[in-house]
Amino acid sequence: IIDENISEMDKTIYEDDNIKKKFYFCMIDGSHALCGAGSLIRKIDNQLIDFTPYILKSLESMEIGVN
Questions:
Q1: Closest alpha carbon to 20 in 1, 43, 37, 36
Q2: What band does 66 get if pLDDT is binned at 50, 70 and 90?
Q3: Which superkingdom, per the lineage (predicted)?
């Protein structure tokens, strides 16, 4: 899930006043899951960089093999 509806609580949780977009994911394999969340936009050298395409590509390439 990609969410651009950022609350003041999100800014506190992610310790980022510049947060513009966040993501949540869960990869499920049977009764096991790998879940996470984070900010998709980072401020680098005073520029806001959108990491959405890189995160999505990384998630597409991930595989969990829990035995």
A1: 43
A2: low
A3: Bacteria
pLDDT in tens, 4-40: 777 888 778 777 776 778 888 888 888 888 898 888 8
Question: 14 and 42 in contact (C-beta within 8 Å)?
Answer: no
Residue with tokens 């949780």: 13
User: Hey, what are 46's tokens?
Assistant: 């005073």
Neighbouring C-alpha atoms within 13 Å toward the C-beta of 22: 17
Decide: helix, strand or coil at residue 53: helix
What is the mean pLDDT of the segment spanning 46-53?
A: 88
Distance (Å, rounded) from C-alpha 17 to C-alpha 20?
9
- Note if the pTM is more than 0.70: no
Contact in structure between 42 and 49 (CB atoms under 8 Å): yes
